[in-house]
Amino acid sequence: MTVGAVTGPFSKEGMVCQYPPMMIPSNVGAGIIMGPTILGRCTSQHPMQKLFPMTGKVVLQTAANVGFNLHLFLLGIRMDASMLKKVGGSAALIGTMGYAMPFTFAGLTYYTVSHVMTLDRTITTSIPFIIAIGSISTFPVITSHLADLQILNSELGRLATYISIIGDLWSFGTILTTTALGLIEHGSKWMSFWALFWITIFVTTIIFIFRPFIIWLTKSNSQEETMRETHFIIVLVIVMACGFSAEVIGLHAAFGSFLLGVALPDGPPLGSALVQKLDTIATGLLLPVFIAISGLQTDLLSAAGGHSSAITELFIVLGYIGKFMGTLLPALFCGLPYWEAVTLALIMCCKGVIEVAAYIMWKDAGIIDDQVFALLLVTMLIVSGVARPMVAHLYDPAKRYMAYGRRTMLESHNSIQLRILICVHQEDNVPTILSLLDASNSTRLTPISIFVLHLMELTGSAAAVLVPHLRTQSQSTPNATGAEHTVSAFRQFEQQHQGNVAVQHFTAIAPYASMHNDICSIAQDKRTTIVILPFHKRWAIDGRVGLSNPSIRTVNIKVIKKAPCSVGVLIDRGQIGGKWSSLTSRSSYRVGLLFFSGADDLEAFAYGRRMAQHPHVNLTVIRFLHECQTHEKKLEDELICEYRANALMMGKNRYKEKIVGDGVETTQAIHAMEGDFDLVIVGRYHEPNSPFIRGLSTEWCECPELGLIGDILASSDSQFSVLVVQQQPDGSVPPGMLSTVTSKNKSFGSKLASEFSDGEDFTPDYSKLVLEVGE
């Protein structure tokens, strides 16, 4: 083996750390195996004492509790209290019924059973807590399940998020009420007063002292990219102090950490920085220890058999049934389709780390015994383990994006308003996109509606966001963010083309894994003709790849598969050629269109044909022909003949034909175009047996989502930008789909979509167009 340097282009690889989506079941299962159920029972005490000595258990339990406190702190940071303003009537009704019905089911059953038979003292003590835990669906747990299922920012995911917030409000209200009543009943009035007094002092200290101090630390660190280590240590000490103080006044230590997290602002810069520093150690390392310890404490054999086991399991199951029915029935009443309502009910039945912590806390306090603890934990694992795969099978957000009509460039008449969805990840994407829009020939007769979707990764927050950007927010300031600069640039573009272009802005903050849901949702709701996606690679000024983001590539691949309209991937090399300037200030903007054959090439041709009408765009259509090709494709020939006639009349556009024998000659012809164009447009898909790509293998493709020709253009050293176009596939309107759409589904979708509208009229002015047509 020879070791040496490898010449040619290369990209640095980075290690990516991910948490498995089924972390709780796997860790609990590991704990059960190592605990008294299997290894602890099958082996002698001596090896188990060596593996888990008493001193080691104390250290392990301490580390687990610290990890749980930090995890609760991070969950609190990710919560956004302003989301309460967005909760609608449907979510409030479903959340209230989902909380109340488990209490009703299990409470009536408990009343009946207690009058029919005599229950053990252990059962009567634990049943109220079993009923209470069956009624809750906590916000952190539900959002984590939604994120794992990649439906956090789907229509159903947002509804489930709002429902969990309502459930948490009812839970906190019930806990405070029962705590106060318990103190009054079992203690003196002064004891109740002092307990409430110290809790009030604790909450006030967090809100009015710790919160402003930590925010002040962040502001003093605003000029640096990351939080200073000293500031981070100070915040960590405050978190631990809040946990200790909560324990002193009679609350759980994790509640103090959680309350501090809720008080701090989510998202960047503070929330994102703290999550970035703490998430790996807390969620990735210490939290699994906490979960595994719950399995170590579980003895499944103690839960098997017996009269008390059956009674306890009855109430546990009734809690899940009440939660399921309490979500399903009001969801149907609010207009959800049946299977979506079933899916929502299954989501709300899922439990997580909060419930596991409650089980451990009750067991340590002697409220429940080993038998009840084992039954609660095992039932939770079974229900959550069954519900999650069923949700993944029943609910596919892409079904909503199935178009109910063809929306393509080719089938849109030139005089009809062109509706384009522009996706922007970073400010650097904007110049070349503006050049593309400028070349798209916006006039009074061919107006354009542009929907700009600024995409941001969800960090430091639990709930995905999709909101419109109001015009009052678009003022440019010296300290403006990249998103504000993007808005300002598109507003300026709109003013330059006043009456011909209308722009509406949206901001989507979501995990990369489900970001395509927001893109497809906007494309569906706004009936766009084409979605423009930025390529995941960016080039430096010297022509080398400066930055590559695999997550953006994943988003692009999913949009290409699921978009309800045509899609264009824009490979931006505008940074090489310079900054954007209006086409009116240039002598010409050179566009090359590579035409082979197929639906995607026809879609690319339709876009190029529109550009050809622009007075400052010089379009060159290069049609590739095979040596033995026979002209049998009437539509393609008709469009080409029409273009050639118009090009001859206008004088500035051109048409060429290239005769090639195989893929090698096609590649050589493409490389020979170096320096001829500012932008090259090409279709994405070509038949595998096409003679134009014969000899080219997809195994060597660096970006197969662009197609073979698109990958060649993206991998070349050319300095022109590239637009790879895919036409909306015919299969996006499945057979019988139109007949299955109910009015309830549409009306409920409009309810949720209405909160994304800012009430602006973004339709271009057609008054002059109507006058001309009338005359």
From TrEMBL:
Location of the Cation/H+ exchanger transmembrane domain: 29-387
Designated name of the protein: Cation/H+ exchanger domain-containing protein
PANTHER family xref list: CATION/H + ANTIPORTER, CATION_H(+) ANTIPORTER 14
Subcellular location: Membrane
Lineage: Eukaryota, Viridiplantae, Streptophyta, Embryophyta, Tracheophyta
GO molecular function: antiporter activity
GO biological process terms on file: potassium ion transport; proton transmembrane transport; regulation of pH
Organism whose genome encodes this protein: Carya illinoinensis (Pecan)
Cation/H(+) antiporter C-terminal domain mapped to chain residues: 589-728
